[in-house]
Amino acid sequence: MPLRREVAIISAGATQFGEHWDKGLKDLVWEVGVKAVEEAGISGRDIEYIVFGNMSGGMFEGQEHVGALVADFLGLNPIPATRVEAACASGGVAFFHGYMAVASGMYDLVVVGGVEKMTDVEPGRATEILSAAMDYEWEAYFGTTFPGVYALMARRYMHEYGLKPETLAKVAVKNHYHGSLNPLAHFRNRITEEDVLSSPIVADPLRRNDCCPVSDGAACLILAPLDVARKYTDTPIVVKAVAQASDTLSLLERRDICTLDATVNAARRAFARAKLERGDVDLVEVHDCFTIAEILALEDLGFCAKGEAYKLYEEGQTYVGGKIPVNTDGGLKAGGHAVGATGVKQIVEIVRQLRGEAEGGRQVDGAEVGLAHNVGGSGATAVVTLLSRR
Amino acid sequence: MSASGVPRHWRSMRERYRLLGTYCENCNSTFFPPRKICPRCRRRGRTKQVEFSGRGRVFSYTVINVGSETFEEYTPYVVGLVELEEGPRVMSQIVECKPEDVRIGMEVEACFRKLFEQKDGGIISYGFKFRPVDNSWADYYKKLSAERRAEAAESTK
Lengths: 390, 157
Description:
The structure holds two protein chains of two kinds.
Chain A: E1 7-14, H1 25-40, E2 49-53, H2 57-61, H3 66-73, E3 81-84, H4 90-103, E4 110-116, H5 123-130, H6 146-161, H7 165-181, H8 193-197, E5 201-203, E6 206-207, E7 217-225, H9 226-229, E8 237-246, H10 261-274, E9 283-285, H11 291-300, H12 309-314, H13 331-335, H14 339-355, E10 369-376, E11 381-388
Parallel strand pairs in A: 2-3, 2-4, 9-10
Antiparallel strand pairs in A: 1-7, 1-8, 4-7, 5-6, 8-11, 10-11
Helix pairs in contact in A: 4-14, 7-11
Chain B: H1 6-11, H2 13-18, E1 20-24, E2 29-31, E3 47-51, E4 55-64, E5 77-84, E6 89-94, E7 107-117, E8 124-132, H3 135-155
């Protein structure tokens, strides 16, 4: 389908991710929304459409109708506002829809955000809510948890490709290192492989330090047509492509449980549409809800062959300064995972990197092109976004 | 799980009690979970219910140490992805063996077990779980129950 016009990001921001006892859903939306509008130097009245990702305001907070909530508490009534839900990919899918609204020519200034308030419920309840991202009747009902599903993938992957727990530990160590450089990260402590390998088992073979935390947080972007973007900022970031793909809701019917076909399909389409190669990409933000997920993502996105991602970790190539820096903000593991906000937060990090504004020593030198990869459930939804400085 | 009432559990009871899936007569494919529409043939498909033999092999497995609210009291327990001899895979608990003895490729068979009990006198849900078919496991459990009987006899003396 030919696009009517190119789209740029003119403003990007996120809240601190973490346990915000003093902030509710509305506070997080307010904090991030006001920042984004101020940064763009626009008036709230100029905004034509709002789309926000949110997985489960209903189950976490007893609050649905999040679209209207966002418009209302940002003081933006009667601007149309839509809440998008695609489990952990809610943010990425919200971006996809905001992008379509501008690319199609329907709206000029569109706010894309994501928010999740997760820490008001007990941990057991949070595990139950997150398991709703899988097939409720035929997975969660039998006692499978969300970490459990990724553990099944990890076990099979270890069986087929000989992956070692030490390699998974390297993923977490690297993400905590990057998190220590990012002031907005949930965890800013550095950890060692030994810390990972001695942490308690959650779902064998995955340990606590293989799993991302439950976070509160929000992130927000403002999109505009590329031809007018320079009116608002000197450094508009060009959206080269966004692609979304679906796969079976449950893990049961996957062709191969060591591959996320939704990621493969979304990546293929995104690279084709952007007319870019893997080698053109300077950094990636991938959906590392568990350490195994980062390994699968790099392979499924096409940065290495199946079964070979371990090499990148053994050689330290996924650190800032390496061949392909991965999750420079700490990813989901250390950066935090406020599920509905994550897909948007990943794009915020890429925008900062491409503008050369990443603080704390995590700036990737001369970054021109970045990729964001957001997954819902165990891979039933994937969104791949390619962004460029020009 | 605690939020759902009786009809929700009752609706999928037949499939859960008897391990029923879907067979498409048009493409000869077998599916689980049950489907109304064949994802390969869509409108050309002719789907009917099929009962699986319940025999299969462990395709992957995990030991759940941190459960959701409903399953917290049952940890640790083993969840396996079982590849049925008819082809489809099901996700279910692997029981009647020690977690550390489960292996990929291990032969298992379906059995009928309690899945969970809602707190405060709610629903008790049943369905399929899987157990090893190797006879040594049956012997192990016979021995175990003999030991338990002896212990019980000892304690009532």
